[in-house]
Amino acid sequence: MLGRLWLLVLASGLLTGCTSLAASKAPGADLSRLQTFYVAKLPADERGIEKIIATYLNSKGLRATSGPEPTPAEPVDAIVTYQDRWTWHITMFMTRLNVQIRDAKTGMILANGESYRPSLLRKSPKGLVDQVFTEMFEQ
Amino acid sequence: MNAIFRAGMLIVVFALGGCASAAVTTAMVAVPSTPVHKSASGVSIAVSGGRPTSMFYTSQISNEGFGDALAKSVVDAGLFSHASVTEGEHYRLTAYIGNVQRPFFAASVPIVMEVGYTLTDMQTNQNVWTKNVVSNYTAPWNAAFLGVERWRLGIEGAAQANIRQMMESVSELKLP
Question: What residues of A are in contact with residue B48 (Cβ under 8 Å)?
Answer without folding.
Answer: 24, 26-27
